[in-house]
Amino acid sequence: MSFTANRLLLFGATGDLAQRMLLPSLCALDADELVHPDLRIICTARSEYDTHQYRNFAREALEKYLPAERRGSVAEFLNRLHYQPLDASNPSGFGALAEEVGAYDDGLAIFLSTAPSLFKPTISGLAQSGLAGEKARIGLEKPLGIDLDSSCDINDAVAEAFPEDRIFRIDHYLGKETVQNLLALRFGNVMFEPLWNAAHIDHVQITVAETVGLEGRVGFYDEAGALRDMVQNHMLQLLALVAMEPPVSFDATAVRDEKVKVLRALRAVSAGETVTGQYRAGAIGGQAVPGYDDELGKQSDTETFVAIKAHVDNWRWKGVPFYLRTGKRLYKRTTEILVQFRPVPHSIFTGTRSEPNSLLIGIQPEENITLSLMAKVPGLDRDGISLRKVPLNIAMADAFTGTHKRIAYERLLLDLIEGDQTLFVRRDEVEAQWNWVDRIRASWAENALLPKPYTAGSSGPSAAIALTERDGVSWHE
């Protein structure tokens, strides 16, 4: 059902996500006049604020996290905010929340960010209080379980109150401009798609590297680890966008149909195709940082680094490895996709060795696209023509002057309000992702694989280098 909501209900409205992302995104959308003037935002959390106190809380968050040039009229935005305290584990509190939301004849959009243990009581409370009617849709922030079984339990609970066409599972990477630009690059340019297959691509690398440690997520991260926290959602979504077949159109059903085909085609990973690691004390940016055990306050076997050699078993990608790696406390922060093309079948130039072309898609911290080509080195060429790799750089910020960089949640919140599911994850995608990840974890348990130590500020355990170099491949640094 298509409708634009005139009510937005934010759960977890005093949390870190709300302060850093949700409130700044909504304020920026308001400043750009992209939300309806009548949109009313109802915020809820356990904190015992009244509306006036919460508006002061929100003002402080905006002053801290939203650039001044994007704030517009903060006072007008704050007037949209209303607050109702709620203990989601207590069903009796939902009646007061429903009264604060009021009539939502034009539609209600719900953003739910909560602990997995609170999903069922929250959904039950929404249904019993009338907040799950036909004009209500719900956005679900991760974590959606810790494995396939728990994910299915959560999805079953949500499905009791909301049909699939009103469920918006959020992966904020899909809101990033450069991630969406990957689709434009592939399907909006004639030169790439004919080469986008095993005949012309040697391998693909996907890297998500972080310099931070636990950052206040001690309990969650030690239970999840890098595989569940990053690979199961963000990295597999990036892989699916790289590997998917061209959809018949850019709409939710067509795009997600093609993504789920890729996820179902992932080959089970063997023990020798994964590397796990855990950081030890070191230095980043000249500053000493503690090891994972030190931050956690106890010993743990949780991985903070994982590298995987993955395969998509279909015609397009037969024999092409997808190398995935992610980790915390690495030497630099970056998210990027490297598409390494095969070398020319025969070089006619004797003066130098021709290097294969590559396409590097930078997602963060900088959004850019770099196509590496071979070009002639200037000179008289008395000993034969010499070639050298030349990068063609497209910095997205420079290519589109006059536009400002948007927070990923701006697009996702706007799509949630307006009802566009294209950049949200469907249930069968989530289950295909968990199915693959669960088999990796089962393999680790079967082979008693423990994380290898690596020094904070490095590029990860040396075994991750060996994972690619035995195939004659080096990680892009």
Task: Set down the secondary structure blueprint.
Blueprint: E1 7-11, H1 16-31, E2 40-44, H2 51-65, H3 74-78, E3 81-83, H4 94-101, E4 108-112, H5 119-128, E5 136-140, H6 148-159, E6 167-169, H7 177-187, E7 201-209, H8 218-243, H9 252-264, E8 274-280, E9 282-284, E10 287-289, H10 292-296, E11 305-311, E12 321-327, E13 334-341, E14 358-364, E15 368-376, E16 387-395, H11 396-399, H12 408-418, H13 427-446, E17 452-455, H14 462-469
Parallel strand pairs: 1-2, 1-4, 2-3, 4-5, 5-6, 7-12, 8-17
Antiparallel strand pairs: 7-13, 8-11, 9-10, 11-12, 13-14, 14-15, 15-16
Helix pairs in contact: 1-2, 1-12, 6-13, 8-9, 8-13, 9-13
Overall structural domain count: 2
User: What percent of residues are in strands?
Assistant: 15-25%
Query: Radius of gyration, Cα only, in angstroms?
Result: 24 Å
- Tell me the CATH architecture of the largest domain: 2-Layer Sandwich
Which overall shape is indicated by the principal axes computed on the Cα atoms? Answer: globular
Largest sheet: 9 strands, mixed
In helices, the fraction of residues equals: 25-40%
Which oligomerization state do the chains in this entry correspond to? single chain
Separate helix tally? 14
Could you please say which CATH topology of the largest domain applies here? Answer: Dihydrodipicolinate Reductase, domain 2
Identify low-pLDDT runs: none
Strand order of the largest sheet: 16-15-14-13-7-12-11-8-17
Q: How would you state the average pLDDT, rounded?
A: 90
CATH class descriptor of the largest domain: Alpha Beta
N/C terminus separation: 46 Å
CATH superfamily of the largest domain: Dihydrodipicolinate Reductase, domain 2
